[in-house]
Design a protein that fits this description.
The complex is a heterotrimer. Chain A contains eight helices and ten strands. Chain A has a domain of 125 residues: Rossmann fold. Chain A is an alpha/beta fold. Chain B has a domain of 197 residues: MetI-like (MetI-like fold, Orthogonal Bundle), CATH 1.10.3720.10. In chain B, 69% of the residues lie in helices and 0% in strands. Chain B has 14 helices and no strands. Chain C is mainly alpha-helical. Chain C has two domains: 35 residues; 222 residues, Orthogonal Bundle (MetI-like fold). Chain C contains 15 helices and no strands. Chain C starts with 12 loop residues before the first helix and ends in a 7-residue tail after the last helix. Classes of the chains: A alpha/beta, B mainly alpha, C mainly alpha. Chains B and C meet through helix 1, helix 5, helix 6, helix 7 and helix 8 of B and helix 3, helix 5, helix 6, helix 7 and helix 8 of C. Chain B: It comes from Halobacterium bonnevillei.
């Protein structure tokens, strides 16, 4: 895992500015949540990290290494989508082994990694299944296992829980949160759901209109919002949010 | 638009449905009846009275397949008999003797080009956003020129090549490319292309590898259906073949034309039935892939 | 994974920059892309290239050569400039007649085919029919039949020994030969429809599948008659598909050739093109006629797509 720096990144599409001078630091092993209304630039920020957008100006650094102009396939970032995007022409195991295979990891080690990850996520019995036959929660876990299999510098999660039912969401939130801290993964977690971000992330960046309004621990953001926007956005749905023990 | 105050049913409520159904049934009969009649008549000895008679006779089938002589000197058959006779001596030349295999081969050549050409452009249009995308799509899914016009253009531009296997294959591929593009697009539309591509690339696969190892296999169904449709349509292409054909075994469509123009009614029925059987086989293959006939959408 | 393990295969940009600096920006972006957007442009180009090559080699170049010979002074070599072929074309009363035939015949058969196909699509989509999958398969079977086979189908129905001819003759006690219409204009009309109805149906079924049935049900429950519901609710929704189907079906009609070659009932444009080729290989005239056909259909399609709400699926 690595320390990730977004240094004064601006991204324009024609006349619109999607991301406007954003600077963020993600420490090794830290999980940073990026929240904000739709169109605030949080997904563009994530895509810039992954390499699918090249910033108009600014830099992206992985452990001090400038990767701004590197193509995504050489960046070693794990990506988890809301739609999972599993490869339906492969089994679950082949999905998980795909990344290591592309990186030239030997067959034995690939198998071992896949087996470990699948058991860690509690789905070892699904290894030989066709992804099309899986439930939403199962697909989500396979997607996560696939992204983790490349031992990425950073794990990028783009609204991974949206579309799951509330009960499953609560359970996955806990499980995935625990797993990520256990693995000591550096992660960027993009969501429009503040509760989700507060529960799973070590710190939170609130974005609005392409700019970062505030960065801080969930408690800081909740208790001392830096602007009226942050206070409104954060308090919107969490009237009685109880900070779990151990949360910063 | 309220109900009629007098409580009477409107005219369309009373007659609309029967009328539409009548048109439907007539259309169905109009399209299907001649096919059935042709197929049945191909097994009749002759048809001089009101109905064909002398069932079941395979004489006409033997004739068009090339196992029995035509009545006059001309031979418009598929020459399968001749092919089988040559096979032990010179297997390579044998397949060139029959219109059936020449067409199979020519159409396959067209399909091969269509795959190389149609799958990438379908992906470009379905996956990416760029200037001129709409127009490119229109060009890709609309036939540029019909067979007869393209035939003349070929005669003029490639006087030596146009009647050869190569000319026919290239012509077929351009004429049938829209069907490949459409079939593949319908597969792509059901896929989350961007996420799929980005997932694979983030996992370390180069873009080209992603395209070949993830995108194409996921669209397999559309690609196979497109290939089958293009194959059948290329084998059936008459207008282009008619204009540019010069020598060698007649392509299938010209075999049909030769029989329609020259053979007896029953023999022609058998020739056309050979074609029906071919198309029925193709339709069946498509259905096994989950499509309904030639509907690409 | 440590940063040292990360792939370092990216080209050293500071090295390549001076070499490509002299190139225009757009070219440089293709040769040495630096942003993901540039790489994407390169990919789009690569994906379109095979098609563009085929279109150029098999379409544009031959069509251009065809256009060139049509204005050539010599008969077999493209040289000089002369519009003789076009003057011939414009002054030839047979060709004027063929043009007129082609247009009215195309429009009339398109109208009839669209009507039949709309009713058929309506029945398939709105009514509960037995064995619907089989019906769809049967109805789409003729799509793959070439025009010459469509012509033969009409001979089977309406020719001298045709099924309908014989049946009518038997009931009416008249001679079948007198009743056969297959090789007349009526027979040709029906043969055109045989080719065009399944194609139109294929297009319209796509449009019908997207119709919002709730709106129709709402209109019906408000007391609208089926005809008014169709006119006010269904029709506006299938209109883009209908216009698209009109454009494509009309194009099909204009391109029909084999059917006319077999039935020989009327001289249409494509038939005349073949005629001047087969009789003395008048390639200039044939090319001029093909150019006129091509330009007309291209203009018609482009205008149709641009100025109507047409939706083209096939």
């Amino acid at each position: 895992m690595s320390r990730i720096t977004i240094d004064d990144v601006t991204k324009r599409f024609g006349d619109t500015t999607a991301v406007d001078g954003v600077s963020l630091d993600i420490d090794d092993g830290e999980i940073l949540g990026v929240v904000g209304p739709s169109g605030c630039g949080k997904t563009t920020t994530l895509r810039t990290l992954a390499g699918f957008e090249t910033p108009t100006s600014g830099r992206v650094l992985f452990d001090g290494d400038d990767v701004t102009h590197r193509p995504p396939e050489t960046r070693n970032v794990g990506l988890v989508f809301q739609s999972y995007a599993l490869f339906e022409n492969m089994t679950v195991r082949q999905n998980v082994e795909f990344g290591p295979k592309m990186q030239g990891v030997s067959g034995d080690e690939r198998r071992e990694r896949a087996t470990d990850l699948l058991s860690m996520l509690g789905i070892p019995e699904l290894a030989d299944r066709d992804p099309a036959t899986l439930s939403g929660g199962q697909r989500q876990r396979v997607g996560l296992a696939r992204a983790l299999a490349i031992e990425p510098h950073i794990l990028l999660l783009d609204e991974p829980m949206t579309g799951l039912d509330a009960k499953l969401k609560t359970r996955l939130r806990e499980e995935v949160g625990d797993l990520l801290s256990e693995l000591d993964v550096t992660a960027l977690y993009v969501t429009h759901d503040q509760v989700e971000a507060m529960e799973m992330c070590d710190s939170i960046a609130v974005m609005n209109d392409g700019q970062v309004e505030q960065v801080g621990t969930p408690r800081e953001v909740y208790e001392s919002p830096a602007s009226s926007f942050v206070s409104e956005f954060v308090s919107l749905d969490v009237p009685d949010f109880a900070f779990v023990d151990g949360a910063p | 638009m309220s109900a009629r105050p007098d409580g009477q049913q409107s005219l369309s409520a009373a007659f609309g449905r029967p009328l539409v159904l009548a048109v439907f049934v007539l259309t169905l009969l109009f399209l299907v009846a001649p096919i059935v009649v042709t197929f049945v008549a191909s097994f009749a000895r002759d048809w001089t009275g009101v109905l064909p008679s002398g069932f079941v006779s395979v004489r006409h089938w033997e004739r068009v397949l090339g196992f029995a002589a035509y009545q006059d000197a001309a031979d418009y058959s598929l020459r399968l008999g001749e092919m089988l006779a040559t096979l032990p001596r010179d297997p390579f030349a044998a397949f060139g003797k029959t219109p059936l295999f020449r067409s199979v081969f020519l159409a396959l050549g067209g399909v091969a080009i269509n795959l190389v050409v149609g799958v990438p452009i379908a992906y470009a249009v379905a996956r990416y956003d760029f200037r001129g995308r709409e127009w490119l799509n229109a060009i890709a899914v609309l036939p540029l020129a019909p067979g007869i016009i393209l035939g003349i253009a070929f005669l003029r531009a490639y006087p030596e090549l146009s009647g050869t296997d190569f000319g026919l294959i290239v012509g077929y591929s351009l004429l049938k490319a829209p069907f490949m593009v459409l079939a593949v697009q319908s597969s792509f539309e059901a896929m989350e292309l961007r996420q799929l591509e980005e997932s694979a690339r983030s996992l370390g696969a180069s873009w080209l590898r992603t395209f070949l190892v993830v995108v194409v296999p996921n669209a397999k169904r559309g690609i196979v259906s497109g290939a089958i449709i293009c194959w059948a349509l290329a084998a059936a292409e008459f207008n282009f073949s008619y204009v540019v054909y010069s020598r060698g075994a007649r392509p299938l469509a010209l075999f049909l034309k030769a029989n329609i123009s020259n053979s007896s009614f029953e023999t022609t029925a058998a020739a056309v039935s050979v074609f029906f059987v071919l198309i029925a086989g193709v339709t069946l293959a498509l259905q096994l892939l989950g499509n309904r006939g030639f509907a690409t959408r | 994974m440590d940063a040292e393990d990360a792939p370092t295969s990216t080209p050293n940009l500071s090295d390549s920059a001076p070499r490509s600096a002299r190139l225009p920006d757009s070219v440089r972006a293709l040769v040495a892309p630096r942003t993901e957007r540039d790489r994407e442009r390169r990919r789009i180009l690569a994906l379109c290239a095979p098609f563009l090559v085929l279109a150029a080699v098999a379409g544009i170049y031959p069509l251009a050569e065809m256009a060139r010979i049509s204005v050539s002074e010599a008969r077999f070599v493209s040289t000089g400039f002369s519009v003789d072929a076009y003057v011939d074309l414009a002054t030839n009363q047979y060709l004027r007649r063929a043009a007129w035939n082609t247009l009215w015949f195309g429009l009339a058969t398109t109208a009839v085919s669209l009507l039949a196909a709309t009713a058929t699509a309506h029945a398939l989509q709105k009514y509960t029919l037995p064995a619907e999958d089989l019906l769809v398969t049967l109805l789409s079977f003729p799509v793959s039949l070439p025009g010459i086979v469509a012509a033969f189908m009409i001979i089977v129905l309406l020719g001298n020994t045709g099924l309908l001819t014989n049946a009518v003759a038997w009931f009416a006690g008249e001679s079948a030969i007198d009743l056969a219409v297959a090789t007349g204009v009526a027979g040709l009309f029906i043969a055109y429809c045989y080719s065009m109805i399944p194609r139109a149906l294929l297009l319209l079924r796509g449009s019908y599948a997207e119709v919002n049935e709730r709106a129709e049900e709402a209109a019906r429950s408000l007391g609208a008659s089926p005809a008014r519901t169709f006119y006010h609710v269904t029709l506006p929704q299938i209109k883009p598909g209908l216009i698209g189907a009109f454009i494509l079906t009309f194009r099909t009609a204009l391109a029909i050739f084999g059917t006319v070659l077999v039935l020989q009932a009327m001289r249409v444009w494509t038939y005349e093109i073949d005629y001047v080729l087969s009789n003395g290989f008048q390639i200039q005239l044939a090319a001029a006629m093909a150019v006129v056909w091509f330009v007309f259909v291209l203009a018609f399609t482009v205008l149709g797509l641009k100025y109507t709400s047409a939706e083209v699926g096939l």
